[in-house]
Amino acid sequence: MKENLKFEDLPKATELLLEKVEQLEIELKTIKENFQPKVPEELMTRNEVADYFKINISTLWHWTKSGKLTAYGIGNRVYYKRSEIIEAVILLKK
């Protein structure tokens, strides 16, 4: 923008500012429509996973050791990611 605006330049400068504001509004609207906040990963305990699948803890341990499910540890606690648990369910052929 010019530093030394004259009175006669004000209408054109105002018009340019309004155009820029309209462009910004359009961009903000697009961002709002397409914005998807990052959802934190939900963790499940061994008991929650066993209850979900209606299995006992030893079966869950075998599934983890065989690679069917992935376990994550925090300290001495074991957790499973809910999204991975849901993905582990396999569609059987009819």
Can you describe this structure?
It is a single chain. The mean pLDDT is about 90. A hairpin with a 2-residue loop joins strand 2 (about 70-75) and strand 3. The chain folds into two domains: about 1-35; about 45-90. The N and C termini lie far apart (about 70 Å). The longest helix has 25 residues, at about 10-35. The protein has helices at about 10-35, 45-55, 55-65, 80-90, and strands at about 45, 70-75, 75-80. It has a three-stranded antiparallel beta sheet. With about 90 residues, it is mostly helical.
What's a quick, concise take on this entry?
By secondary structure, the chain is mainly alpha-helical.
Structural class: mainly alpha
Q: Kindly state the number of beta strands.
A: 3
Mean pLDDT: 90
Order of helices and strands: HEHHEEH
Uncertain regions: pLDDT < 50 for 5+ in a row? none
Largest sheet composition: 3 strands, antiparallel
- Strand line-up of the largest beta sheet: 1-3-2
Euclidean distance between termini CA atoms: 69 Å
Radius of gyration: 28 Å
Shape by Cα distribution: rod-shaped
How much strand content do the residues show? 5-15%
Determine the number of helices (DSSP H or I, runs of at least 4 residues).
4
| Helicity level | 40-55%
Number of domains: 2
